[in-house]
Each structure stands twice: as C-alpha cells, then as structure tokens.
C-alpha cells in the first residue's frame, strides 16, 4: 500500500499506551480489533481471542477515541497478556479508517479483523492457519457463522457458500457476487502480503463487498465447515443501522454530511478493481463483463 501524506497524518494520531514495544519476532497472526465505545462487550470479545488454541498471535487494539470505559478495559488486558498491544486515536477517524489503521499497526504474516462485539470459537485460528498453510494459492480462510444477540443467544446460521477454490479468478469473482450476503468472510484470516495490495476498506457503503471481490481475484477462499465464528447482532451494531443517519456517522463522524451511502460508488470501485488487479487480458475482459452484469442487475439501486 502506497504511503500518502494523509497516511502520515493518520500515523501521528494513534498513540500507544504504556510504551510497550513491538515484539522482536513478528507473530504468525495479527488480530486487529478496531473499537469505539465498546465497553459493554469488548471484554468478551478479547477473552474469546485469548482462548485460541493457536497461540502465536498478537492482538492489536485501536481505540477510536472512545468516550466510555473502553480504554480502561483495554489497558487491563494490556497489563495481563504480553500479546496485547493497545493504541488510542487522538480523535475519532471513522470506522473505515480505524479498520485500516489497525492493519497498518499489525505485524503478522496472516491478519484477521476482529470486531469488538463478535466472538470466535477456540479452534478458529488453528483451523484457518492450517487452511492457508496447506495451499499457497488460498488468500482467505474463514469458518461457518452463527448469529447471536447481545446476550449470546443463537439467532440462526449465516450461510454464504463462499468456498471459492476454482483456479480461474473470474469464476471466483462471479460466484462471490452470486452468493455474497452479509460479508462475514471479511472477518476471516487473510494473507498480509495480499491484503497490502488492496486499498483495504473505503469510506463508502459496501466497501467490505469490494474488498472481498478484489481478494477473490488474487486467490482462493477456504470455508472451514465448522461453526467457529459468532457474529453479534444488537441495537448498536452496524448491521442494525444501515440506511439511517448512524450509518453515515459510522464512516466519518467529522464529515458525515458529506458521506453519501448510495450504491453507485460500490459499482464504480468494482471497475477500478478490474483495472488494478494484475490479470491476463482474457481474464480482465471476463471480470469486466461480470461487473457490467452486476451493475445491470442492481441498476434500480442507482441514483436516477
């Protein structure tokens, strides 16, 4: 990812508490936890990460200038476990940029975003690491998902069917768009060197869809056939606040009046992905054709 002046500015806004230096040897896995006012549930999320049977990991928390007790809770975990690193932004950067920051602050060969309210089963990392280690062409591994509420009660299964192992990038891209619904796979384990080639998450609705689409052009997706990810749905979660003013604040609270959550931006980004990813001529043409089909399907969503 190319550094820009804005990247340099962002780097100065994240301050690491208690002066812990980065480990001398990078861990195999980095778990990035972007959080804003997550005091109610973040302890449960961190406990589920620290309980992993695969232990060669770091937890990088980037606190987006929380105004509740999030900082105090995170510092307790920082003092408790050497694998925890805690940073606090001097101001709220918006969720998308904080997701990018937590990746930039990480060190591992493999990377996973971990929301501050979701839970992971103890075997999550071990099974995903095994999947990526077993096939160098795999770029992302993730388990099956259960949806839970704020009390941890199961609400149902989330079926994505994103086991994308065909060798042809355009076919993976097309299947992703035919089946993708809730984007839980973005919380899977991803190869760092591949993720660095992408713009990460942009400040527009559907940025997670675009990131998964781009990753599918770089390599295979492996779905672990076990329910090891527990995605929490509650009144304050992003999934419960789509298409209302809270969605705008999620992306950029400082300039929320300038953020327009309309779908045309998502489709424009798909065209940019087609140009950016290094594919052969025929594969680029096939992907471009599929993008046009997606836009044709969704044309009713576009502004008139």
Quick recap:
With 304 residues, the protein is of the alpha/beta class. The protein is 37% helix and 20% strand. A hairpin with a 5-residue loop joins strand 7 (138-148) and strand 8.
Name the descriptors.
alpha/beta; globular; 304 residues; 11 helices
Would you kindly provide a written description of the structure presented here, covering whatever features stand out?
With 304 residues, the protein is of the alpha/beta class. It contains 11 helices and 10 strands. Strands 1, 2, 3, 4, 5, 6, 7, 8, 9 and 10 form a 10-stranded mixed β-sheet that branches. A hairpin with a 5-residue loop joins strand 7 and strand 8. Helix 6 packs antiparallel against helix 8, helix 6 packs parallel to helix 11 and helix 8 runs parallel beside helix 10.
Roughly how many Å is the radius of gyration?
A: 19 Å
Report the β-strand fraction as a percent range: 15-25%
**Poorly predicted tracts of residues:** 1-11
- What is the N-to-C order of secondary-structure elements (H for helix, E for strand)? HEEHEHEHEEHEEHEHHEHHH
Q: How far apart lie the N and C ends?
A: 35 Å
Q: Tally the helices: what do you get?
A: 11
- Overall geometry: globular
Mean pLDDT: 87
Category from helices, strands and their pairing: alpha/beta
Number of E-type strands = 10
The oligomeric state of the chains shown is single chain
Biggest sheet statistics: 10 strands, mixed
Q: In which range does the helix fraction lie?
A: 25-40%
């Amino acid at each position: 990812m190319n550094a820009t002046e804005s990247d340099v500015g962002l780097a100065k806004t994240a301050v690491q508490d208690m002066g812990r230096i980065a480990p001398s040897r990078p861990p195999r896995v980095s778990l990035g936890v972007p959080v804003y006012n997550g005091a109610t549930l973040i302890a449960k999320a961190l406990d589920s990460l620290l309980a992993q049977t695969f232990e060669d990991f770091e937890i990088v928390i980037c606190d987006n200038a929380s105004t509740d007790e999030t900082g105090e809770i995170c510092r307790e975990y920082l003092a408790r476990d050497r694998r925890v690193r805690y940073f606090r932004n001097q101001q709220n950067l918006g969720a998308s940029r904080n997701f990018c920051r937590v990746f930039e602050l990480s060190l591992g060969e493999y990377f996973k975003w971990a929301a501050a309210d979701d839970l992971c089963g103890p075997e999550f990392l071990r099974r995903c690491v095994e999947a990526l280690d077993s096939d160098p062409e795999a770029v992302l591994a993730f388990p099956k998902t259960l949806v839970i509420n704020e009390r941890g009660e199961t609400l149902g299964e989330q079926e994505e069917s994103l086991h994308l192992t065909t060798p042809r990038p355009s076919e993976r891209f097309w299947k992703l768009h035919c089946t993708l619904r809730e984007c839980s796979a973005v919380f899977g384990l991803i190869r760092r060197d591949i993720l660095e080639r992408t713009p990460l998450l942009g400040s527009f609705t559907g940025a997670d869809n675009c990131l998964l689409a781009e990753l599918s052009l770089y390599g295979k997706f492996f779905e672990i056939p076990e329910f090891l990810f527990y995605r929490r749905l509650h009144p304050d979660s992003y999934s419960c606040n789509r298409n209302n003013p809270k969605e705008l604040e999620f992306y950029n609270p400082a300039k929320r009046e300038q953020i327009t959550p309309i779908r045309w931006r998502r489709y424009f980004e798909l065209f940019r992905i087609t140009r950016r990813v290094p594919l052969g001529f025929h594969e680029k043409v096939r992907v471009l054709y599929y993008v046009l089909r997606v836009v044709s399907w969704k044309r009713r969503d576009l502004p008139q």
